[in-house]
Description:
Layout: H1 13-42, H2 47-63, H3 65-99, H4 107-138, H5 145-176, E1 178-179, E2 182-183, H6 185-205, H7 219-237, H8 257-273, H9 277-283, H10 289-294, E3 300-301, E4 305-306, H11 314-337, H12 344-369, E5 381-388, E6 394-398, E7 401-402, E8 418-421, E9 426-435, E10 438-447, E11 451-459, E12 462-470, E13 481-486, E14 492-496, E15 499-503, E16 508-509, E17 513-514, E18 518-520, E19 523-527, E20 532-535, E21 538-540, E22 545-553, E23 556-565, H13 576-599, H14 606-630, H15 635-657, H16 667-671
Parallel strand pairs: 5-11, 13-22
Antiparallel strand pairs: 1-2, 3-4, 5-8, 6-7, 6-9, 9-10, 11-12, 13-16, 13-17, 14-15, 14-19, 18-21, 19-20, 22-23
Amino acid sequence: xxxxxxxxxxxxxxxxxxxxxxxxxxxxxxxxxxxxxxxxxxxxxxxxxxxxxxxxxxxxxxxxxxxxxxxxxxxxxxxxxxxxxxxxxxxxxxxxxxxxxxxxxxxxxxxxxxxxxxxxxxxxxxxxxxxxxxxxxxxxxxxxxxxxxxxxxxxxxxxxxxxxxxxxxxxxxxxxxxxxxxxxxxxxxxxxxxxxxxxxxxxxxxxxxxxxxxxxxxxxxxxxxxxxxxxxxxxxxxxxxxxxxxxxxxxxxxxxxxxxxxxxxxxxxxxxxxxxxxxxxxxxxxxxxxxxxxxxxxxxxxxxxxxxxxxxxxxxxxxxxxxxxxxxxxxxxxxxxxxxxxxxxxxxxxxxxxxxxxxxxxxxxxxxxxxxxxxxxxxxxxxxxxxxxxxxxxxxxxxxxxxxxxxxxxxxxxxxxxxxxxxxxxxxxxxxxxxxxxxxxxxxxxxxxxxxxxxxxxxxxxxxxxxxxxxxxxxxxxxxxxxxxxxxxxxxxxxxxxxxxxxxxxxxxxxxxxxxxxxxxxxxxxxxxxxxxxxxxxxxxxxxxxxxxxxxxxxxxxxxxxxxxxxxxxxxxxxxxxxxxxxxxxxxxxxxxxxxxxxxxxxxxxxxxxxxxxxxxxxxxxxxxxxxxxxxxxxxxxxxxxxxxxxxxxxxxxxxxxxxxxxxxxxxxxxxxxxxxxxxxxxxxxxxxxxxxxxxxxxxxxxx
Length: 704
C-alpha cells in the first residue's frame, strides 16, 4: 500500500502525476502556440508551407501514441516508458530552442535543428500520452472508484490549466522580450523546455511511491493478429468451407469466441470513426490559419492592453472550463426537458455542425480582413504610387497615358497604388511629370510583380523624380512596418523605441523595419552633425506600412506620416464568436466521443479504441496538410471549403449512426461464464433496448 494524502483514500503519488501533467502540457501547448509565427517570421516560410508543417507535426504527435502504448504494454511498462520518452521529449525541446538562436549557424542549420526538435518532441509527447493518465489510474485500489473518477477530473483540469497559462505566457516572452535584435523565440521555446525538465524531475521524485503494474502484453497487437488471421483464413479457405456468419468468425480456430466478439464490438465503433478526422481538420486550425488571421487584425483593447495574435488560442482552453459545466448542468437538461432525445452520437453530429458554423464565422471575418491588404501586381505588371514633394498638385503620365486620373496633391496622407502594365518582365518606362504648367520627363526601370513609389521633389532644373522599391506585404506578427524619407541635405538617424533607422541625405529612403505597435511621441532624430530633436510620430497601428517624410519647417525637423498600406481595421474581438462556436462543438463532439468510446468498449479493449480515437486527430491534421499545400485557394474560400466538407461529412455520419445499435459491454461477463464454458454467438443479446446510454463524467476537458 502506498502513502495516502492525509485523511483520504487518495494516494500521495497522484500529486506528482498531476504536477507532471500540468508542466508537460504547459511545455507542449506553450511551444505549439508559437510554431506558426515562428515558421513565418523566423524561418521565413510562406503561410501555406508553415500551415502544412504545423499540421504535419500535429499529426505525428497523434500517430506516435500507438508506439508508446506498444512499448509500455509489451516491453517497459508505463513507468519506464514515461521516464525514457520524457528524456527524448526534453532533448527535443532543447534542440528546438537552440535552433531558434540566430547566432547558431545558417538558416539551413536552424531549419534542421527545428525539424529534428519537433520530431523528438512528437515522439516524446505522443509516446507518453497513452501512459500518464492510465498510470495515474493504476495508483488507486480497485474499491476506490469514486476517488479514481475525481482524479481524472483533476487530471484534465491540470491539462487545461497548463494549456491556458502557456498560451498566455509564451507569446509575451516571444514579443515583449527582445533578444538578438528581434522577437525572442529562443526564450519563448526555452521556458517550455525548462517546464518539461521540471515535469521529468517531479515525476522521478515520486518514483518511490508509485504502484507499478508489470507489462501484460499489448491487446492492440493481439487484435491485429486476430484480424489478420481471420482475413487470411477467409481468403484461403472460403472456397472449400461453408460461409460463416461474420468474417471475423474465420479466426475461431485460433482465438476465443469472447475475443472475437469483443473485436466485433470495437470494429463497429471504429467504422463510425471514419468520418471523424474532418472535425479535427477544422479544430486544429486554431493554431495555424486562425492565428495567421489574427496577425492581420487590430489587437488593441483600448489603451488598457493589447493581445498577441498567438494568445487568442487561450480562448479555447478558457472556454472549455466555462462550457463543460454549462452544457452538463443547463443546456443538456433543457434539451431533455423539451423531450428531445439526447444520444451520444447526436451530440457528436451537433458538434460537427457547430464547428462548421465556426468556420462560417471565420469566413465572414476573413472577407473583411483582406480589404486592407494590397494585392501583389499580376505577371507583366507592377504597382506604382506617387509621393509628391514638389510643392503643389502634380500630374503623372506613364507611357503617354494618365495612370492617375486625379492630380496628385502635395504630401498626400494615403497614396494609392495603381497597376502599371509593362508588357514584359523588365521595362524602362518613360514618365512625364507636369507641375505648375511645366513638364519634365524621366526614365525608370520597372520589374514585373514589384511595387514602387515614385518620389517627386524640386531640383535645380525643375521637378525631379526618383523611384524606390516598396514592400507591401503586411507584417506577419501584426506589428507596423516603418521607413523614413529624408528631405534634408544632411544624413541622420532616427530611433523609434529600440529600432534605429539610418537615412542618407537628399531624398534617400531607409529600408522598412518592424516597430512594435504603439504611440510614439518622443522618437529621437539626430543629424550627422550631432544635433538631436524629438519627433511626434503618433500612433503606429497594427498591420500598417508607413513612409514618414522628414522635412525642415521653421527651423525644426517635422515628420509627415504617409500610410502606404492601411492599418488592420477589423478588431480581433470578432474572432471570439468563431472560438466560442468551435469550443461548443468540441464539448459536444470530443468529450462525448471519448465517453461514447469508453462506454462501448469491453474493459480490455478500451486502449484499442483510445488508439483509434487519437488516430482520427492525426488524420485530421493530414487533411489540412494536403489542402494547405494542394488547394491553392484564397483563405476565405478555403474556410468555406472546410465548412462545406464538414457539413457533408456530418450528413454521412448521421446516416451511419442510424444503423448503429448501442451495446452494453458488461453483458459479456454474463454471456461468457468461464466456469460453465457457456458461449453465445448472437450479439443481439448485448444490445441496449434504446439508444440512450448513461455516460460517465470522465473529465472537465478534452486536451490530451
